[in-house]
């Protein structure tokens, strides 16, 4: 199985191994006077050459972090490191390829996984903003707690119990400024150089960039319309001892696939068995077309091996940037510390507006209408795609189509020509851990209105015929 790492050229491989060893010492995995793995064993674990590990150990020895016992091996120095709390700041390459594409203006916008603002109840939200100021006249003069507004967390915990069968208290919820911040905080806490992360192939491109920034080794797990190959997942957990498995199992971005119930239960069992944290990113749960999706993996977790990220930014009120992270203690304590260093709390006003807006009967009714509108959008896009013979699996929810182009069409050339005609989409290789899915593209059907959607798709497919 191929893997990728997030190192830049300024971080040679032996130095990544050096940082990896030091990071595990800081986390307390290897304490003072502990014997470190042999060169051979660590090389096998990290899938690098023995000379690379030997060079890292030699540098650690020169720096006083490690000492050598003759014919015995390497040991952690007594005063080499202290267990550190808080966030590890990484110097690895930082980028966001998806954001770079989405920043380019386009008349026919198929790269944004956001909903057409005209489909949102904007006047209704405006009324609620006025009510919030009446109910909380001092809201602009106060901070929320770092963990999030008490009233909002209590309301969401009740909502999760009633709708998703999640047994959690308000103390097991953290409010973040969007799902991307949640992923970033978790990565900062969990990952250091050369740490292994299982990640779907393809997956959310921003998550790839975040994990690469931490210097992690990315281990791809293929996702299909039927879910995962669980035998492969278990083998990878056994072989690589990953720190976590980042997944988006419900109306997956970019494919739209949904992992079945039976796999969700077994995945939680595997996480417990191999001590691999599952990070379940769930931003599209409420956007389904026919039947409710399966329960989150978090619903089956009793030992604290699942972190659940529930973002509402896509379809409730994107401007509010509200996301809830559910997890058990003691990991919640570490998240709160990381959040306090990031921004000391999500804005109180945003949380109060969201609280009364999301729980209102009017908005819940609107979600039903929104699903119908988005299904119409999806069908318009599929009608136009059907005329050119491109391949895709019709999703049961979400905002995107994952489309495979014929081999004789260059996605790179189509992307370049499309930009010239103000058409935007996302090349598939951005979502691929290995950067090899060069015949795939992601088309979002949610942002453009019906007229622009049909017109833009006709222009895109016509353009492909000229290549």
Automatic annotation (TrEMBL):
SUPFAM superfamilies named among the record's database cross-references: PLP-dependent transferases, Winged helix' DNA-binding domain
Keywords: Aminotransferase, DNA-binding, Pyridoxal phosphate, Transcription, Transcription regulation, Transferase
Pfam families cross-referenced by the UniProt entry: Aminotran_1_2 (PF00155), GntR (PF00392)
Listed name of the protein: PLP-dependent aminotransferase family protein
Similarity-based family: In the C-terminal section; belongs to the class-I pyridoxal-phosphate-dependent aminotransferase family.
Molecular function GO labels: DNA binding; DNA-binding transcription factor activity; pyridoxal phosphate binding; transaminase activity
Cofactor: pyridoxal 5'-phosphate
HTH gntR-type domain span: 11-79
Organism annotation: Paenibacillus anaericanus
InterPro entries: Aminotransferase_I/II_large (IPR004839), HTH_trans_reg/aminotransferase (IPR051446), PyrdxlP-dep_Trfase (IPR015424), PyrdxlP-dep_Trfase_major (IPR015421), PyrdxlP-dep_Trfase_small (IPR015422), Tscrpt_reg_HTH_GntR (IPR000524), WH-like_DNA-bd_sf (IPR036388), WH_DNA-bd_sf (IPR036390)
Entries under Gene3D superfamilies matching the protein: Aspartate Aminotransferase, domain 1, Type I PLP-dependent aspartate aminotransferase-like (Major domain), Winged helix-like DNA-binding domain superfamily/Winged helix DNA-binding domain
